[in-house]
Write a structure and sequence with these properties.
The chain is mainly beta and about 130 residues long. The protein has one helix spanning about 105-115, and strands spanning about 5, 10-15, 20-25, 30-40, 45-50, 55-60, 65-70, 75-80, 90-100, 115, 120-125. The longest helix has 8 residues, at about 105-115. The termini are far apart.
Length: about 130
Amino acid sequence: QVQLEEFGGGSVEAGGSLTLSCVVSGYSHSDYCMGWFLQAPGKEREGVAGIASDGTTAYADGVKGRFTISIDNAKNTLYLQMNSLKPEDTAIYYCAAVEGVPARGKLLEYLRRFGVWGQGTQVTVSS
């Protein structure tokens, strides 16, 4: 059974940085997608960044140039490096994983629809 556990959330001032980690266990597929989503209070969960086993990445427009997604396959760990954080980045951040690689441009939507989710980690950015 696939399990995902997020680490690294916390509180930071605007302009600061955080790195989120997601340890994945019980996953053995060679073709896969993983990614990060956020959910702010009262809002729907939305995609932040995704990465596929073929190296394809996708980012939400609001985080391009500030956030970087990466995978360490040896450690079965997904990362999200977040720089230049803004108060509007405040949310619970979830990681997700799913078998397969979707068509170009569909990475985050594919994860949203079919992904297995972690429990989330809170990120709070103060102004």
